[in-house]
Amino acid sequence: MTQPTLDWEQLGRYLAGEASAEEAAAVRRWLEEHPSDARVVAALDAATRNLTSGAPVDVEAALRQVKTRMRATPPSVAWRRYAGFAAAAVILLVAGVLFIRRAPSTRPAEPALTYATPIGQRKEIVLGDGTQVILGPATTLVVRGRSVELTGEALFSVIHDSQRPFTVRAGDAVIRDIGTDFSVHSDSGQRVRVVVNEGSVQLAQGSDSVVLVRGDVGVVEPGGRVAASRGAATDDDFAWTLGRLVFREAAMSELVADLRRWYGVELRVTDTALLRRHFTGSFARESSDRVLDIIALALGAAVERRGDTAYIRTAPPVR
In the chain, N or C terminus with fewer CB closer than 10 Å? Predict the structure, then answer.
């Protein structure tokens, strides 16, 4: 970890849900400003979430032991880095134990609420905890307390609660809020894509995870690999919330999925050469026929529509 600028005991209180509002705000700012440290904190926090209660833990003794070792060792740069890491690990462990002690052994299942949008329409909703959500077209959101399952696209403005993290499940991926605004795009057969507008989130699939901060874009490929593009977000990533559909070097699979959700058109690619092509363009209020014509023209293709299905193939050479 880099040289800390935050008291690790304060970090421990934050993770244990015992920090004041001012302390919690300070920790969130620090995590945003120190993304490499935030990634380590998130990884350690994730590890402790799977702990189960066992023998009693002497919390005060553990803290005294860490402090004694830190004071007794010469203050070299290498030791300060190690000590900060070790102290954070102890605090995260304590936070996990405290969470387990506070949590009841059994909880009644929270009733599920389902929100859905039709093709071509968006919807704004406010969840029971105050979190605001904009749902994209043909999107389904199943809500169980502070855990939601998403199919489609949504923008979340989360009300942060350190004792009850807000999580989004999209396919096999899990997005965990650390106090933020972020969008999630998830269609069957496509990669999950997360764009952070404010704050930070943890994006995970299985044992692979990454912490994303403001301006970052994270993806989970169909094979399960998690990757981040730092500072890659643009206004176009949130244009859909205003009713504008934007494609940037989009693969055919993305075109197929988004045309289905936004226009109710099933695009069938009958020429395998087109499967390797990419499309860049944007649409707002164009008709579905106009959209198909623009895509075909840009790709040098011909399109034939039969009801709600459109067939696209490479255009024949002009004689």
Answer: C
Distance from C-alpha of 283 to C-alpha of 304, rounded to nearest angstrom: 20
pLDDT tens column, 144-199: 999 999 999 999 999 888 788 899 999 889 999 887 889 999 876 678 999 999 98
The DSSP annotation for 251-281 comes to EHHHHHHHHHHHH--EEEE--GGGGG-EEEE
Query: Rounded to whole angstroms, how far apart are CA atoms 147 and 74?
Result: 46
With a CB cutoff of 8 Å and minimum separation 6, the contacts of 139 are 116, 117, 150, 151, 152, 153, 154, 261
The structure tokens listed for 209 are: 């995870």
Among 23, 27, 169, smallest CA distance to 88 is for 27
Question: Quick one: which of 167, 158, 141 has its CA closest to 28?
Answer: 158
> How many angstroms separate the CA atoms of 32 and 142, rounded?
29
Q: What domains, with CATH codes, occur in the chain?
A: 8-102 (no CATH), 113-236 (2.60.120.1440), 244-314 (3.55.50.30)
DSSP letter, residue 112: P
Side-chain-side CA neighbours of 125 within 13 Å: the count stands at 18
Nearest to residue 245, comparing CAs of 217, 299, 286?
286
pLDDT band at 82 (very low <50, low <70, confident <90, very high): very low
Vertex 92, ends 176 and 228: CA angle to 5°?
Answer: 35
DSSP summary character for residue 292: H
Dist CA 97 CA 100 (whole Å): 5
